[in-house]
Specification:
The chain has about 675 residues and is mostly helical. It contains 28 helices and 2 strands. The protein is globular, with a radius of gyration of 33 Å.
Length: about 675
């Protein structure tokens, strides 16, 4: 009941939102409203299936590893570069994919990624060396997967607000479920076909992401009537007339000398085109014309000649209206021209008299740098287009519920929150998109301003100067060095302990299904305001490190199952809570930039981790050291991440001390100036 009341309150707030002028971007109506359901659940399903295919194939590379080693006659450290490039590139290309998603939309980007991924896996069957397999399967396949993965995540955040935590949780569970499904599927394909036939079948499966991507239709701004100024004025006048208010009535009250009141008829208004003119207002309102209050000029006119002047103006008004009517009936183009002239007169009059701040600001926007009407229309269209783009929202990558954000709680309504988190490039706001200074253009001046802004927003390395993000980034680098090692080598490690290869492949399925459960649990726990998401992540990383470290001590299948289950369950928080941790530490304004940089760092570490472990195996011919090394990397990641709150408190104390020092210096300078002034006087 309480929730429904809140929803109704939010709906009322949105319904009562301010109307906007048709020539400018409406602050509320031109921002797409996430439906929190409806077609959004189709988006969740398509995102789930995209994650199932992408991560399912990427995480099951370990099933193909022994086949590649035998076919190419290379060491495991060398062959591991193929799988690590696939996983690392699709993480590292996040900033570029983000710019493409913002430019072309989730649907187009996802379809393009499915075609690239399909082509990569099909071409990989022609590889005659590991180097060629790295390019086709690893690099090109990673780019294709990146073009699928990010739109699948962004589209869910674009369609949900209040139910985003639930929707995102369902969508990302596709990763774990995909590992559960594709591990035995890959083993079965290798058993009946060779690795080339299996890759061709996987290429066909990847192409299905084009179908799922086609379901990611973009949100459109709500089709609410943003009525022109004159029409809104006419409707306000008609409403006042129906209410019988003082302004809508044909009479006004005058107090006489004896204290009594007398009702007198109002004098008709002047005929000059402007805010008091009857031109267009009565026709727009569609209601009976109302009598009007006298203008200031009429009130100050000579009472003797007032009737003659009023009669003359009345005749002039009738003549103008008759002429206007004839023009409207004869030539529609002339009608548009006249309406534009009257609107210009209204704007000019408003600017001279400073009728209101709203009209003055509208006039300033229309008569500023843009100049002509075409410039205004193109600027408005650009702003509306940018406001509807997915990454225009600062919170689109946030996987938790927006109701927990301070930015949401500080707003009066959901509509005002949407307005506060939409970001439009400054060049477009000032009407200088594609003109004047090419800030930050350099060799990329051919790239559109919005695309360059989005890429720079996702790859702004100035954030590396922040000690909090720096510690978090280093922690993630160490974490990803050990994260992919179990996915790549646990099957081969189990076969060295005399476990059947087909049975060992089910270990990845165990990791996948427990990872799915872990994502749901960690997401549910972190949704409570009192829970520290960073602490939950750190504990989970440490426990997953223990599980990886204990793999060499497993001597039977049950031990491997336990280690795999613990690792899958607790490693889920490392990925699932990323955006929530970033917002908790850095704020929603830094989420896009921090997420892009973190994906880049994770991708580089993911590329290096499995080949490093494989090289150690080639030197020692044992999986003990590689798994111990991976477990240590996860321990180091957890230890560094546990230091982040201390670093954050230190940064805050430093900022407070700097502020106090600056205030003291300003106070001392002011005192010295006062003393000097006193001496001079």
């Amino acid at each position: 009941m309480g929730q429904s009341k809140q929803d109704a309150k939010g709906a009322d707030a949105e319904a009562n939102a301010e109307e906007c002028d048709g020539d400018d971007i409406c602050e509320i109506h031109d921002i797409p409203i996430p439906p929190d359901g409806g077609w959004g659940w189709v988006i969740v399903m398509s995102s789930f299936l995209c994650n199932l295919i992408v991560d399912g194939i990427a995480y099951t590379f370990g099933v193909f590893l022994p086949k590649f080693v035998v076919y190419f006659n290379e060491g495991k450290g060398t062959v591991a570069w193929v799988g690590s490039l696939l996983a690392g590139v699709y993480l590292s290309c996040g900033p570029i994919v983000g710019a493409l998603t913002n430019k072309f939309g989730c649907r187009t980007t996802c379809i393009m990624g499915s075609i690239v991924g399909m082509a990569a896996f099909a071409l990989s069957t022609l590889s005659e060396s590991v180097a060629m397999l790295m390019v086709t399967y690893g690099i090109i396949g990673g780019i294709g997967f990146g073009l699928i993965y990010l739109p699948a995540i962004v589209s869910v955040g674009y369609y949900f607000e209040k139910k985003r935590a639930l929707a995102t949780g369902i969508a990302v569970c596709g990763s774990g479920f995909g590992t559960f499904v594709f591990a035995p599927l890959a083993a079965m394909l290798l058993e009946h076909y060779d690795w080339k036939g299996a890759n061709l079948i996987l290429a066909g499966i990847i192409l299905n992401c084009a179908v799922f991507g086609s379901l990611m239709r973009p949100l459109e701004a709500p089709k609410k009537k943003c009525k022109p100024l004159l029409q809104r004025m006419a409707e306000d006048k008609a409403a006042q007339l129906e209410r019988g208010s003082l302004m809508g009535s044909q009479y006004f009250m005058v107090q006489l000398a004896d204290g009594s009141y007398e009702k007198r008829l109002k004098v008709p208004v002047n005929v000059d085109p402007g805010v008091h003119s009857s031109f267009d207002l009565d026709e727009l309102a569609g209601a009976h014309a109302a009598a009007r209050m006298p203008t200031i000029s009429e009130a100050k006119s000579d009472p003797v000649n007032g009737d003659a002047a009023q009669q003359e103006k009345k005749e002039d008004k009738q003549m103008k209206n008759a002429q206007l009517k004839d023009n409207l009936e004869e030539d529609p183009k002339e009608s548009d021209k006249l309406i534009d002239e009257v609107k210009a007169a209204v704007a000019l009059r408003g600017s001279r008299n400073s009728v209101s701040n709203g009209e003055a600001s509208n006039l300033k926007r229309r008569s500023g740098a843009c100049g002509s009407k075409d410039d205004v229309n193109s600027l408005s269209a650009s702003k509306k287009d940018l406001a509807a783009r997915p990454l225009a929202r600062k919170d689109v990558l946030y996987t938790g519920s927006v109701t927990n954000l301070p930015e949401y709680q500080s707003q009066k309504s959901l509509a005002s929150y949407r307005q506060s988190i939409v970001s439009i490039p400054k060049a477009v706001q000032t009407g200088k998109a594609g003109q004047g200074k090419k800030s930050g253009g350099g060799c990329c001046t051919c790239i559109p301003e919005a695309t360059r802004k989005e890429m720079s927003g996702l790859m702004d390395f100035s954030l590396m100067k922040d000690p909090v993000f720096l510690f978090l980034g280093v922690s993630n680098v160490f974490g990803m060095l050990g994260f992919y090692v179990p996915f790549v080598y646990i099957i081969d490690a189990a076969t060295t302990k005399d476990i059947d290869e087909e049975t060992a492949a089910f270990l990845l399925s165990i990791i996948g299904i427990t990872n799915t459960v872990g994502r749901l649990i960690s997401g549910y726990i972190s949704d409570f305001p009192a829970v520290d998401s960073l602490f939950v992540t750190n504990v989970c990383i440490a426990v997953s490190g223990v599980a990886v470290f204990c793999v060499p001590f497993c001597n039977n299948y049950v031990g491997f199952c336990i280690a795999s289950g613990v690792f899958g369950l607790f490693s889920s928080a490392f990925i699932a809570l990323t955006s929530i941790v970033l917002v908790d530490l850095l704020g929603i304004a830094q989420l896009t930039n921090a997420f892009g940089l973190l994906c880049l760092l994770r991708g580089v570490a993911a590329i290096v981790g499995p080949p490093l472990a494989g090289s150690v195996f080639d030197m020692t011919q044992s999986y003990d050291v590689p798994f111990w090394l991976a477990g240590i990397f996860l321990f180091i990641s957890s230890a560094i991440s546990f230091m982040v709150p201390c670093v954050r408190r230190w940064v805050k104390r430093k900022e407070v001390a700097l502020t106090a020092k600056t205030a003291g210096e300003m106070k001392q300078l002011k005192s010295s100036e006062d003393a000097t002034r006193a001496v001079q006087t």
